[in-house]
Amino acid sequence: MWMRRKTEVGSQASEAYFGVAWPEVNDGLTYHDIVRPTDSGLTLIEFYFSKYKNSAPLQGWLQRIQNKQITIDGKVVTLPDTELRAGAKLVYHRLPWREPDAPYLLQVLFEDDYLIAVNKPSGLQVLPGGLYQQRTVLTQLQWHACKLTATSSGCQKTHPVPVHRLGRGTSGILLCAKTKLGKSRLAAYFAEGTAVVGDKHTNSECNTMRKICKIYRALVSGVMDMDEVVIKQPIGTIKYSGVAKGLYVASPSGKPALSSVRVLERDSENNCTLVQVEIQSGRPHQIRIHLSFIGLPLIGDPLYVSGGQPKCFHPVMSESFEKDGGYRRPENPVPGDSGYNLHAHQIVLIHPIINELIKITAPLPAILQTREERRANQPNYS
Predict the structure, then answer these.
(1) For the chain, which terminal residue's Cβ has fewer other Cβ atoms within 10 angstroms, N or C?
(2) 242 near 232, Cβ under 8 Å?
(3) What is the crossing angle of helices 44-51 and 58-66, to 10°?
(4) 3-state DSSP helix/strand/coil percent for the chain, to nearest 5?
(5) Which domains does the chain have, with CATH numbers?
(6) CA 181 to CA 160: how far, in whole Å?
């Protein structure tokens, strides 16, 4: 694949950083609905509790209505038994809240007129979701774009947007597109890679057909016997309290996924192995699931254990609720919890606009370096 391109553009870690400290609380959120003909005649409380029961219990929705957080056609309504008519415009105003702590500085690894690649720190969510609606990479990208292009007419219309995701606890390279064309082509790269795996091509065929290659570093529990292993375990979902769309796990009936794992260093004394993982598909939490599936879960992973399954299938839900009436997070682990060591170390891709070969590298945390790499990175005071 790579030999067909004329130019290779290497990138080294930049000293450029950007980021704005998070405000104490966010701005809250506004959710809009239009009553469909099929929902005409429902009461206000019936509408919200039937459609958004994962957001809040019945008491929570009653609290939100009585707290004047819901309007119908622009007018505050506090009676939960108010009957709805087709076409009515509903707005629910979620109160501002203090989001959990998260880092905010992003290191620029590569940037041109079409792409920007940043080094995402562990603990920072990529896109809004759950309790993290403002404290995300996307927000920092938007703020940064506004700062750079602020004019009398406001910010530029097109902001850089991530074209793939990294788990909140995963650090390393996050690739973002600055243009719609770049975004669509990069999205196609990722989709094509996953589709190739789904079509059951051989590993060499997958490598030849891909236009993007992602390499990770991980520290796993246990000493891996084989020097290399290819994991083809499908990944599917199961019902899991606190995860509305279901939890991704190793599942025979799931979608195809492929990870190539290579041992970099074994540590028998501490019962761990440093590995390099190249993923040829992009299923959620794929590396965490695949490594745990073969009995080598990531050290410190609060969720996945051997077999690619969660530690607990029936998390306990807190009986208390947030000030806004919504559920508190489960008391047992959920996918976004951090604590493990997984780093998106390198991406090699065909530039989606100029067709040049780009190699981007994110500096390795010390714990994910080999002994030789740590020695090489030590300062020389002689």
Answers:
(1) C
(2) no
(3) 130
(4) 20, 30, 50
(5) 2-17+100-377 (3.30.2350.10), 29-94 (3.10.290.10)
(6) 12
Token duo for residue 302:
């609060």
**Which amino acid is it at 378?**
Q
Read off the amino acid at residue 41: G
* Buried/exposed 156-168: b ≥16 CB within 10 Å, e otherwise: eeebbbbbbebbb
First to last CA, the chain: 44
Single-letter code of the amino acid located at 12: Q
- Report the run of H or E that residue 276 belongs to, with start and end: strand 272-279
And the tokens for 11?
A: 């990138």
In this prediction the pTM is 0.88
The single-letter code of the amino acid at 143 is: W
Alpha carbons 174 and 166: distance in angstroms, whole number: 7
Q: Quick check: 170 and 343 in contact, CB under 8 A?
A: yes
Residue 381 tokens read as: 């005071």
290-314 pLDDT, tens per residue? 999 999 999 999 999 999 999 987 6
